[in-house]
Amino acid sequence: MLRGPGGGEGFLSAPISEALERITAPVGSSCGPREPLDGGASAASNGRAVLLRADRFELPMSPTAVFGRSGPLVVEIGFGDGRFTETLALERPDWNLLGIDISAGALSRAIGRLVAARVRNVRLFHGTAEFALRQLVPPDSVARIYVNFPDPWPKARHEEHRLLRAEFFRRVATRLGPNGELCLTTDHDEYWTFALGEARASGLYSIDEREPPLTHLATKYALKWKFIGRNFRHAVFTKIAEAPEPWPRLPSDPMPHALMDGELPELTSFEKQVLKIEGGSVVVLDVLRPLEGRGYVFMVHVEEHDIVQQVLLEARPTPRGLHVGLANFAAPIATDGVQAAVSWLVAWLEARGLRTRQRWYREIASSSAPQRG
Ligand SMILES: C[S@@+](CC[C@H](N)C(=O)[O-])C[C@H]1O[C@@H](n2cnc3c(N)ncnc32)[C@H](O)[C@@H]1O
Fold first, then answer.
1. How far apart are CA 77 and CA 84, in angstroms?
2. Do residues 202 and 173 touch, judged by C-beta distance below 8 A?
3. Distances from the Cα of 2 to the Cαs of 50, 111, 212, in angstroms?
4. What residue numbers bound the domain in which 310 lies?
């Protein structure tokens, strides 16, 4: 039996994959002297070693390359201020921990905490769990996923925003290894019933309801709810069957761009553009002019399937001609939606008299949609 932070049995007493059992250190071996894991790039001295940027490696990521070693890959979804992540990292230095959170505030608090604690075995990703699991994480690679106090979305009409829906359970099964687990802790009775029902509906998990391990009751939200006397629930969902469908990554290409000739128009106003694409939409929100006055920057919001990105496109004069394409800012991923945005911009400039000399992007079918608001 494996034990986790605090040595409590409940924490890790679930049946766990043979693979995980084989490669984890023996009970009680945690917190020994810590070796650098990333070829000497110390997370303690360099916060960037903690932050995982999707544009810095081939997708899906190779966990061995990202962590600088092999080891069980364990994912925490919604790490909040990173308390639990820190405890886990220090207690299980043999695990490779990937934390995922959509909140920039959470990211900055957790990075500060992890750098101060000098942990070396955590990488944090800023984005949605759906995006990270789909795009970054290889199939069958995850030993365990932790979800502590997910946002409950209590109103019935907001149910679709809940993370632990049957579809998510099915998709997660593609990323979990054999007997991989998802551990849920929540204070919310309705969410609890919902998540159990959705896991059952997926047909891919056995469900073990347990007393919440103490470490899970020391997160920021656990302490908040404990203070007002809420009850806590804990379940371990163990994968017992393979998902019927794969969850393929959305294609991502090299930076889509074009080289154009001609004079950029003088813009005095810009009307928001909305394009419908398969599985989502592209909204060109506004145009900005760099201070030195050369070229334009377009702010674009792209939603496709479960991926949401805010990207910048640029139309920038260079000695070789006008460079029109995706700007390398905020780690964009060149998905179909982004290709459609670049394709729209080239067509928009062509309609204003510019000529395209060369293009390096895929044409994606899109249609303009009526604007909302
Ligand atoms: C209620 S807080 C719980 C934080 C922490 N686990 C705790 O117990 O203190 C929920 C966290 O999940 C994050 N979150 C919500 N939806 C998410 C998603 N789709 N992917 C990743 N993180 C998400 C939020 O930003 C927030 O940090």
1. 11
2. yes
3. 26, 28, 16
4. 257-368
Contact assessment for residue 110 and residue 80, using Cβ atoms and an 8 Å cutoff: yes
Contact 144, 75 (CB under 8 A): yes
Asked if residue 224 and residue 102 are part of one domain, the reply reads yes
Q: How far is CA 53 from the centre of its chain?
A: 10
pLDDT digits (tens, 9 = 90+) for 193-250: 999 999 999 999 999 999 999 999 989 999 988 888 889 999 999 999 999 999 998 8
- Please list the active-site residues: 151
So what's the pLDDT on residue 330?
Answer: 76
Pocket of ligand 1 contains residue 101 by CB under 6 Å: yes
Alpha helices in the chain (DSSP H): 9-12, 18-23, 63-67, 83-91, 104-116, 129-131, 166-175, 189-202, 220-227, 336-350
Q: Cβ(199) to ligand 1 under 6 A?
A: no
Cα of 61 from ligand 1 centre, angstroms: 22
CB of 164 shorter than 6 A to ligand 1: no
What does the alpha-carbon distance between residue 45 and residue 368 come to, in Å, rounded to a whole number? Answer: 48
The CA-CA-CA angle for residues 198, 203, 204, to 5°, reads 100
List 346's β-bridge partners, or say none. none
Q: 100: closest CA among 135, 65, 64, 72? A: 135
Centre of ligand 1 to C-alpha 100, Å, is 8
Domain count, the chain: 2
103 lines ligand 1 (CB under 6 A): yes
Q: Are residues 235 and 273 in the same domain?
A: no
Residues forming beta bridges with residue 296, ordered by sequence position: 315
pLDDT tens digits, one per residue of 104-144: 999 999 999 999 999 999 999 998 999 899 999 999 999 99
